[in-house]
Task: structure prediction
Amino acid sequence: MTRAARLVLLCVLLVLLASGCGGVSAGAGADPASAVPAGTAIYLEGVLRPEGDQRDDVLDAARKLLHTDDPERRIRELVDQGLKESEGGPLSYGHDIEPWLGQRAGVWVTGAQRAKPGYVVLVATKDAQKAQQAIDGGIKRAGRRVSRRSFGDVDYQVDSDGVAAGIVGDFLTVGTEAELKRTITALDGRSLAEDKGYRRAIGELSDNRLGHFYLDVGPFVEAALRADPQARGRAGQIRALFPFDKLGPVAGAFLADGDRLALDTVMGGEGAGVIKSLGLLTGTGTTPLLAELPGDAWAAAGAPRVGRSLKGVFDRVAGALGGAVAAERLRKSTGLDLERDVFGWMGDAALFVRGSRKADLEGGLVVQSTDEALSTRAFGKFAGLARTQGGQDVQPVRVAGADAAFRIANSDLDRPIVLARGNGRVVLAYGERAAADGLKPAQRLGDADVFAQAKATLGGDYQPAFLVSMPALVAAIEQAGHPDPGYARAEPYLEALSVIAGGSRREGKKLRSRVAVGLK
Result:
């Protein structure tokens, strides 16, 4: 039955891009969440047989990703190839799966923090009898001995590993036996599909989604703490550091068309405020500084109000783990005052990478100063600490546009590490030229094609919080030489991508985020 589980999971992953055809029975479109217990913290669902415009969008995306004019045929070839390599013996999608496969599939998980989590995969069927024949045929081909059991009015089979399979309502189900029984109970009782929190969360997602996930953060983290004796004893400190109990459910949708693949997520209520307050640690928010980076950067990321975010995190740590004592010790030993020398002047921040060869690869971190007096004071302290505490060879250096700058030479690096101050910014860079361009670039990233691609790929009202030019990344990997064998297999798919970008925005009490991949 473990092999059967792998078979079903393979179908969920590979057939996601397959198109459906022919009539669909009522059971084929059944909602998998109707057989998931209410209160489940982790649930994922996907469309296996997209139709209409959604089907056309999927095929457009597959056409570009798979480099073929006939994506349906290529997808079936990939599925059949995977089935032939399965432990259950030679199978084909057309003969063994398509006759019973419905429109939707889902999987719910419990005890994800355990070595062996509980799970159930549910695949809607359009013909329960043929689905049962598929289970029986897989068992026979595998030559495995199973136990036949019943729970309620459902008959199922269990192998020696405790993995069970059977037909539950309109679903072919495979999973751990205890969770399979809970699925049977949920189908006739209260299910996740009836849970208000779940319905509210997925109601914020696009109706045109190919799949979605649901994560109830609070119960998930609480269960992880209960499972770890050491963490359980420090639950209060952990809540103070990361108030997971205030976080509500997070829902996400996977979208695809001929222009992009995208993952949208949404969090509402108090949880959105908590995530937003953690700022750069969560990747939320964006900054105009990103567009002010050097125009030849091929990777960039930014975050707003870094000093405020760091202070918020520190305050949580100080309250939970006694960080205030550590801060005082730091001040006495180094003279560095976190409030004045770090939090007090740091505004928005952004980093960039450019160059495709080792000879010209460089980048830097750019931090806007909100208080010139404090940043000037801190700058001098950083230089002194690098020399006295770090034992580095720190020397003054001339950098175009800098009011002050110094370099740290390292024989293991092709370029020195440079810290420069000027134009209302402090820059930590790999190389003097990168430091100068970080202070005042000759060309702006906001005027570059990759930035326009990132905005177009994100769409809507999203502004890029990070971006990566995939052609430039591929070129850098190839220039490095001797890539991993896995990269060689992935390279044809990577070459179909133009840019990866992410961004987020507040919408009332909701926090919406999107990560998107552009297709060439």
